[in-house]
Amino acid sequence: MHGQNGVSQVSFECRTGVACPIDLASADSLFDNDYVKARRSEAWLVLLAAAYLFFLLFSYYLLRPLREAMGIARGAEKLPWLMTATMATMFVANPLHAWLVSRMNRRRFIPWICHFFAVNLAGFYAAFRFLPGHGGVTLGYVFYVWLSVFNLFVISVFWGLMTDVFAADRAKRSFGIISVGGTLGAIAGAKTTSYLMQDAQLSSANLMVLALLALELGVVCMLLLAHRAGLRSHGADPHEPGPALHEGMRLIAQSRYLQLISGYIFLFTIASTLLYVAQGHIVEATFANHAAQTAAFADIDMWVNIVTLATQLLLTAPLLRWLGVHGVVLVLPLATLVGFGALWLAPVFATLAIVQVVRRGLHYAVDRPARELMYVPLGPEAKYKSKPFIDTFVYRAGDFAGVWLPTALAALAVPVAAAALAVSTAWIGVALGLRAAIKRA
Q1: pLDDT for residue 72
Q2: Domain that holds residue 188
Q3: Of 5, 47, 234, 328, which has the fewest beta carbons less than 10 angstroms from its beta carbon?
Q4: Tell me: the pLDDT tens digits for 193-223?
Q5: What CATH number is attached to the domain comprising 406?
Q6: Is 22 inside a domain boundary?
């Protein structure tokens, strides 16, 4: 069937997007509390999905603090150029991703994407380990761009698969548990890097080996999940994306719903990038050397994920149940507006840490699950072509706009803080439009 937004839809009540041999009618509760209502028949799907996300985010958060420190190795003023290089890389990577998705089914192209990035990590390990001077700042910049591409693609593809495996009613009760698995992986990865870098027990190159192993364990979990969910390894499937290379972009051009999601992501990313640039300057001014800066970034990541975990356990399910997806989309824009106001008044590391922890915690625990639920009723072309384009290119386009905005504002003698508040206000406006579209869908 087709929804009001011009995008092929899958019924909420009776289809999951895969040939899933599960008796939903006879399934019992998996847990007996109010926040987790996954049925017994869904237990393995939920737990395997949580383990899959655990290993993806463990891998990423092992490396994220390294990326942050490498990004300011020659000063935070280099960040705009790194963001520009990242967007240019996304411009090339998206057609390649669409080409791969158009020619392989999900059970094949998802592992291929992960294996590709694992091979890249092996190459970075060799380069950082054996090149003179560990490759220098230039190699660090290359790694910065690569990791910025890696994390968006693997996470976008992960959630695309989840919106296939879990129909809307099941997604609302399952995505919280799955997200907890990812949060635990992020906490473990950030804490591992913080501990090993502070005590100099392991080199940056060796962290890449750990990340590679975690990524491959994620592939194992994905294959087990695909088997249990009934995804075919060969042959045609009506729920697989079709061969049309540019179908994802065509759907965005025709769908008001997808356009609003794109606008929401774009403004979210501009706001996030303005905060990210401020973070780079504040950390650079507060901590004297590479190791201390890496540890500071890792500590922020660890506390972000601790707050995320607590929020997921206590607030995510109640908020989705009470406010609905259409209400939750307003939470993060409002919190961002307050956070930028606090930083305008007190631009110091303590304020930065609090704003980052609260804002990113709400993003991962509340905003991200709600955002992924928006894709559940959509067809495979939207999930595997439109969604990755939005999650990667549109996202990085927001980075590009956000990172160059301070330069443009300086030329016009406009305070960055005032622009940040204006972006947050515009984001609230788009969220209100998206709220109305979700209610109509």
Answers
A1: 67
A2: 40-440
A3: 234
A4: 877 776 555 567 788 899 999 999 999 999 9
A5: 1.20.1250.20
A6: no
Q: Tell me the two tokens of residue 102.
A: 């158009």
Per-residue pLDDT tens over the stretch 293-337: 777 877 887 788 788 888 888 887 788 778 888 888 899 999 999
Give the pLDDT confidence score for residue 3 in this predicted structure.
45
Instruction: State how many domains the chain has.
Output: 1
Q: Is the pTM of this model over 0.85?
A: no
Would 196 be classed as within a structural domain? Answer: yes
- Within a domain: residue 14? no
Q: Is residue 32 part of a domain?
A: no
In terms of C-beta density within 10 A (0-12 exposed, 13-18 middle, 19 or more buried), how is residue 1 classed?
exposed
Amino acid 200: pLDDT: 53
